[in-house]
Amino acid sequence: MDAAHREVVLLLRSVAVESNRTAAVFGETHDLHRTDLDALAVVVGASLAGREMTPGLLATELRLSSPATTALVDRLERSGHLVRQRSTTDRRRVVLQVQDTARELAREFFTPMAEDVGAVLADMTEDEVRVVARFLQRAVEALRPRPGSPERPAG
Question: Is 47:53 a contact under the CB 8 Å cutoff?
Answer without folding.
Answer: yes
